Amino acid sequence: MANLLTAVRLALSIPVTLGFAYNEFLSGWVVLLLIVIACLTDFLDGKVARAKNTASARGQLFDHSTDFIFVTTGLAGCAFSGLINPYLPVLILIAFSQYVTDSYYLYKQKELRMSFLGRWNGILYFGPLLLLAFSAIKLGKDFEEFMELAGSIFAWILTGSTLLSIIDRSLAPLRDSE
Q1: pLDDT means over runs of 10, the chain (178 residues)
Q2: Residue 113 to residues 22, 60, 150, 155: CA-CA distances in angstroms?
Q3: Of the N and C termini of the chain, which has fewer Cβ atoms inside 10 Å?
Q4: For residue 178, what pLDDT is reported?
């Protein structure tokens, strides 16, 4: 059941990305609804896995990989349409690759090794998507412009925090060897 919830989020990545990249593809309300569903599945999949005693390292990798795909492609759609800077999706790709590589190959763990900043970034990457989806629901020009500005600023803040996370993770082996 938990993996099914995660799979729903994975399937939603395509319409959400296209909805941001081509605003005529889906209405703002539909994009917002799909993002809310994605957030709910992200919130529930781990709870379901723990409640049913089916939580596993593979399930965690599937969940985190799905989150990565969902937010990175959604934010790439936003960047394509000029709503956010193009650096954030690229930095998320680098940060996630580093996260997986460090966990499994550098630290030789059998599960993902989270960092404080990386964890919060992972959660907050949904923020610009929500703000920009709200901007597309046509509740007035001022509301739309405010939400677009808020989404863009949030994306820049996450660009900086993602860069910091990449640097922190790069320096972690040096700290761990002391």
Answers
A1: 93 98 94 97 90 88 94 98 98 93 76 84 96 94 96 98 93 71
A2: 36, 11, 31, 25
A3: C
A4: 59
The tokens for 53 are: 């005693």
Task: Centre a 10 Å sphere on the Cβ of residue 117 and count the other Cβ atoms it contains.
Answer: 17
pLDDT (0 to 100) of residue 111: 73
pLDDT at 108: 73
**How many other CB atoms are there within 10 angstroms of residue 165's CB atom?**
25
Strand, helix or coil at 176? helix
Q: Domains in the chain, start-ordered, CATH in brackets?
A: 2-172 (1.20.120)
Nearest to 172 by CA among 120, 107, 128, 124: 107
CA gap 19, 45 in Å, rounded: 24
